[in-house]
Amino acid sequence: MQKTNILFVITKLELGGAQKQLLAMIGGLDQQKFQLFLFTAREGLLVEEARGIQGLILLRSKFLERKINPLKDILSFFQLRSFIKKNKIRIVHTHSSKAGILGRFAAASCGTAAIVHTVHGWSFHDFQPGWMRRLFIWLERYCAKFSDKIIVVSDHDRKIGLKLYIGSPEKYRLIHYGIDYNEFLKSNRDARKEFGLAHEDLVVGMVSCFKPQKAPQDFIALARAVREGLDGVKFILAGDGVLRNQLRRLIKRYKLEKNVTLLGWRRDIPQFLSCLDVFVLTSLWEGLPIAALEALASSLPVVATDTGGIREVISDGDNGFLLSPGDMSGLAEKVTALLKDKDLKGRMGLKAKESLGETFRLENMQKSYYNLYAELVN
Q1: Domain 181-356, second-level architecture
Q2: Structure pTM?
Q3: Sorting pLDDT into bands at 50, 70 and 90, what band is 378?
Q4: Alpha carbon 230 to chain centroid distance?
Q5: Do 293 and 269 contact (CB within 8 A), yes or no?
Q6: Most buried residue, 22, 270, 318, 366, by most Cβ within 10 Å?
């Protein structure tokens, strides 16, 4: 039986939730039925993982990058267009903002049989300049016209898209993120030694790229606020990015060198999470943060900002707390309450794991995408 050629397009294979989910989904597809291709930027921390997927044909573009660059963007478009034609791609599936626009334009110009885009949080948000937000909304509306399916990872994003007239209701499909529950089932308190933590330490952590969207500087401000009422708490942050130097300066300014540790990028997230008492997210905008799902699977109460679709997994006062972005006093109050009250922390931890149910299992996500592609081929 002839295979169906599918091209995935994502801007950069950085160590982020959308990228990890894409590779997990690709790795679970039946390569007896699909020939898989991936178009992405030349550099990225997950490039080696992509190379390790047997049968995946990987093209790393020297032109594709996150920043807007008219010349490179045009060259990326023509490179994509040529690649689609040469390899007789039947389905183009785009991920991330810039790849979603360039990839869909290129696919439409080639008359590709099916075009799919996954929204990992919309390309526009309330923290952009007004003109930029309006531009991205217009681009999303235009690209939706020739998208056969728009995949959202939260119902929140579907509602926003329809409210702003981005595509019609029948084009939308909700496919939840999927994680391997088994990776997060076992608590490994001995892992604390690897992170320089004592068994009795109270530890608050976050997994985040150091970029404005995630507001990691608020995590440092939170450490300062909690220390004022509860001395000796350890704050550890797994991630890296453009704001690293700013975070270092804040740690020094607030005299938090003994309280805050920046770990850099980590690939042992289950072990990292097993060291924590409370998990925190300080994002300004989100789609649905995978880090929150992983924390819940690790039986951790989550204290997070109320952004994007997080209300679909965090029930305020049940398995965590939700605060407005930038509400440092509120975040500090909830984190402190959990650290002081072991019973409260324990109850929320039990609710955390239970609240995921079967919805966010990796195999469910893989099956949903397989069914989608089979439907499009037919």
Answers
A1: 3-Layer(aba) Sandwich (3.40)
A2: 0.94
A3: confident
A4: 31
A5: no
A6: 22
